[in-house]
Amino acid sequence: GVAELMFRDDFSDAALWNVSVSDSASAQVADNRLTLALSAGPQSIASLRSEPLLTDFYAQVRVYTSLCRGNDQYGMLFRASPGGTYYRFLLACNGSIRLERVRGGAVDILQNWLPSGDAPPGAPAELMIGIWVSGTEFRFLLNDRFQFSLRDPVMHSGTLGFFAYASGKTPVMVSFSDLEVFVMAYVSPTPTQTPTSTPTP
User: Going by DSSP bridges, is the β-strand pair 159-166/73-81 parallel, antiparallel, or unpaired?
Assistant: First the structure.
């Protein structure tokens, strides 16, 4: 159901992203990458794209981990809206993946940690994250390989973003590049009605 390209972001325009710099964390756009960096933890940082609002789409992005270990995390946000509401597809640097729904800071686990041979343990590493969204159905891919799918009806549209989390006393640095978002032409099949016999008068 993936159709034509909707847009491509080469991370050359910092105005499209939430950027910030402090002594302990930063989100910066430079050299055609969005880089999220944390000096130590526990703390996290996220950067959202200002537009467009997306409902159904397929998005893929290339990810580079420079500093990442153990329970440190990074990932992609989708259907994000102001007030800390979004879905969050996470990869831990121990080689596992997870999906969360976040609303106003409250986290609901939709898929708890799963080991994945496509999620690189540690750093440095390079991979491709893909997220397929159609209605209430979501599918997740790493390096074009299917990981899992599920349905959730709560959030219907929003922007994209990226996330990083430092779990301990060591720094984390993750970069994202070559974001591509495609139109979704997939329509979920309508269940076939079960025929029933008509009673004879």
Answer: antiparallel
Cα–Cα distance for residue pair 176/10, rounded to 1 Å: 10
- Tens digit of each residue's pLDDT (9 = 90 or more) over 149-185: 999 999 999 999 999 999 999 999 999 999 999 999 8
Q: For all residues of the chain together, what is the average pLDDT?
A: 93
Report the distance separating Cα 38 and Cα 46, nearest Å.
11
CB 30 within 8 A of CB 163: no
The residues facing 163 across adjacent strands are 46, 75
- Which residue matches tokens 């050299």? 31
**What pLDDT, on the 0 to 100 scale, is given for residue 199?**
57
Q: CA of 42: how far to CAs of 107, 133, 158, 164, in Å?
A: 17, 31, 27, 11
Within 10 angstroms of residue 153's Cβ, the number of other Cβ atoms is 7
CB 111 within 8 A of CB 99: yes
Tokens of 64: 């580079």
C-alpha–C-alpha distance, residues 162 and 36, integer Å? 8
Lookup: tokens for 165: 């989390």
118-132 mean pLDDT: 96
Q: How many CA atoms lie within 13 A of 11 on its CB side?
A: 23
Confidence band of 33 (pLDDT split at 50, 70, 90) = very high
CA-derived radius of gyration, the chain? 19
What proportion of the chain, given as a percentage, has pLDDT over 70?
A: 93
